[in-house]
From TrEMBL:
Catalytic reaction(s) noted: prephenate + NAD(+) = 3-(4-hydroxyphenyl)pyruvate + CO2 + NADH
Organism the protein comes from: Streptomyces montanisoli
Pfam annotation, one family: PDH_C
GO molecular function: NAD+ binding; prephenate dehydrogenase (NAD+) activity; prephenate dehydrogenase (NADP+) activity
Annotated ranges, domain Prephenate/arogenate dehydrogenase: 2-282
Official protein name in the record: Prephenate dehydrogenase
Pathway: Amino-acid biosynthesis; L-tyrosine biosynthesis; (4-hydroxyphenyl)pyruvate from prephenate (NAD(+) route): step 1/1
Length: 361
């Protein structure tokens, strides 16, 4: 691949442009908003100048509702040897393209499983896709050239290709992406009218659960409008679980010992099913999540503190597998939770204490 055209210069499109440009591909940028394309170009994602002829690959990075029309237009205009889209829903746009009578041999629906709560070109990075799954949904008539160019794009972006059926993809993202967004928003919405005294008690748990609730509503309306059925199916199952959880908790209020014990068993079953589901989420390097030990360190809010703690961990010969920060309310401090292999936890704790760090059990 020597040339590419990115149509739509938001977070994903600009990140694609940055990744390709960094690897020597001549990238041309197009957007319905010239200012957005200009911003992406200024960031180094490519040039606003139109290509002189057909490029190797056109990457359509527009909202799902506009994918079919944009792809059909690109194919009919002969803008590229092959054309892909990167929308988060796959079966709907393909059906629309078929209805439009577009020649789909040179088209391939794809979806990089990467993103941020922030949107727009200023949030883009060249390494956004590194190590992330990138779903490819070839159809029966997809040309080999289109598939090969898509695979080359995934490789240049340093992502991991995953081939799936379009409908299976939409059901999968409904479960692992779209429903979690709504669940996060539902929990966060309960905070809107909560007493200030309650909100001030928010800890890391509620921060983790509500992180993605900060996402752009407009973007998610586009996504959910394109995949409503599979998301509704998952939510219906969650609603059944919620109803059973409510009944179990009500039983815990009962004066009847049998009802209370039944409630305990039901709540325990829910929590254990949650444990089992969580254990299936891929961990580091795609492997099953490891049981790490947490070394919690009190850190003050001063420049260089995080760098110093990681340097001290490295000096102790300990590899930090993961990290999270829990901020203290109304204090210029927080707890840095360093996740390490169980055998390394005592070594790290002792080394950090020697270097003056305050360790919390």
């Amino acid at each position: 691949m020597r040339t590419a055209l990115v149509i739509g210069t938001g977070l994903i499109g600009t990140s694609v442009g940055l990744a390709l440009a960094a690897r020597g591909v001549a990238v041309h940028l197009s957007d319905h908003d010239p200012g957005t394309a200009r911003t992406a170009a200024a960031l180094g994602a490519g040039t606003e100048e139109p290509p002189e002829g057909p490029v190797d690959l056109a990457v359509v990075a527009v909202p799902p509702a506009h994918v079919a029309a944009t792809v059909a237009g690109a194919i009919r205009a002969g803008l590229a040897r092959a054309c892909i889209d990167v929308a988060s829903v796959k079966s709907g746009p393909r059906r629309e393209l078929e209805a439009l009578g577009a020649d789909l041999g040179s088209y391939l629906g794809t979806h990089p499983m990467a993103g941020k709560e922030r949107s727009g070109p200023l949030a883009a990075t060249a390494d956004l896709f590194e190590g992330r799954p990138w779903v490819l949904t070839p159809g029966k008539g997809t040309d080999t050239e289109a598939l090969n160019l898509a695979l080359e794009l995934v490789s240049l972006c340093r992502a991991v290709p995953v081939v799936m059926d379009a409908e299976a993809h939409d059901r999968a993202v409904a479960l692992v992406s779209h429903t979690p967004q709504l669940m996060s928003s539902l929990v966060a919405a309960r905070l809107r009218g909560a007493e200030e005294s309650a909100v001030r008690l928010c800890g890391q748990g509620v921060r983790d659960v509500t992180r993605i609730a900060a996402s752009d509503p407009g973007m998610w309306i586009d996504i959910l409008t394109a995949n409503p059925g599979p998301v509704a199916d998952v939510l219906a199952d969650v609603a059944v679980d919620l109803g059973e959880a409510v009944q179990a908790l009500r039983a815990l209020e009962s004066c009847d010992d049998d009802k209370r014990q039944g409630g305990v068993r039901a709540v325990e079953d829910l929590l254990r099913r949650g444990n089992a589901g969580r254990s299936r989420v891929p961990g580091k390097h795609g492997a099953a999540p490891a049981a790490y030990e947490i070394v919690a360190v009190l850190v003050t809010d001063r420049p260089g503190e995080l760098a110093r703690i990681f340097a001290d961990a490295g000096a102790a010969g300990v590899n930090v597998e993961d990290v999270s920060i829990e901020h203290a309310t109304d204090q210029q401090a927080g707890l840095v939770q360093l996740m390490v292999e169980p055998s390394a936890a005592p070594v790290l704790s002792a080394a950090l204490r020697e270097r003056g760090w305050s360790i919390r059990q």
